[in-house]
Design brief:
The protein has 206 residues and is an alpha/beta fold. The chain is built from 7 helices and 6 strands; from the N terminus they run βαβααββαβαβαα. Strands 1, 2, 3, 4, 5 and 6 form a 6-stranded mixed beta sheet that branches. Helix 1 crosses helix 7. It starts with a strand and ends in an 18-residue tail after the last helix.
């Protein structure tokens, strides 16, 4: 089994990375392979609603979205991490998630996921919500911890002093490992994914 951990920060070894690394250690201790996927500092454009991916199965814009979509197809679980900017996740991560979930939703469906955020002080709970909404709209089990999934600090060294925050990350890792093992045991017992009805699309006019 494998979990992809996405670092939505342009700082590849900063606070968000420190939180994700704490989770990865626990998953590795539970014999689960991990990869921390770095979005990096290159610009990631937003979705333009062109609908081309509905025909090709790929986003028309060639950046990291299609690369990650192919990795996601083989992954079993996901952690998406972001720093807090003005009480919201990084725009880079949200643009990335909008496009990859829209163009490759089948690669994520029914797979466990969680959001993680890092902040110097505040804006954390508001930032968790828009990331998590990508999971719930795509029928993905949301993995909990023993508190909201956040760490605090301005530097990685600060985060390493946030003992409660690091414990939250470790608990999240344990819960992810437990849920993945439960799903795997269910598959071996013949339990199938739920059947999904054909989507009904309405608006507020009719």
């Amino acid at each position: 089994m494998k979990v992809l951990l996405v670092n939505g920060s342009s700082n590849q070894n900063g606070c968000t990375y420190t939180a994700l690394s704490e989770i990865a250690k626990v998953l590795n201790d539970n014999s689960i392979e991990t990869e921390i996927y770095q979005l990096g500092s290159d610009a990631i454009r937003d979705c333009t609603g062109c609908q081309a991916c509905r025909k090709t199965g790929k986003c028309v814009y060639e950046d990291k979205v299609n690369e990650f979509a192919s990795k996601a197809k083989e992954a079993d679980g996901f952690i998406f991490g972001s720093p807090v900017y003005y009480a919201h996740p990084s725009g880079r991560l949200l643009c990335f998630m909008d496009r990859v979930f829209y163009s490759a939703s089948a690669n994520f469906k029914f797979k466990p996921a969680a959001a993680v955020v890092s902040a110097r002080r505040a804006g954390t709970t508001a930032s968790l919500e828009p990331i998590t909404k990508h999971f719930t709209i795509n029928q993905m089990p949301v993995v909990p911890s023993n508190y909201w999934n956040m760490v605090h600090g301005k530097t990685p060294e600060d985060v390493k002093q946030d003992l409660e925050g690091l414990q939250i990350m470790r608990t999240l890792g344990q819960n992810m490992a437990w849920l993945l093992n439960c799903i795997e045991a269910g598959k071996k017992s013949g339990i199938q994914y739920p059947k999904t009805e054909e989507k009904i699309m309405t608006n507020f006019i009719r």
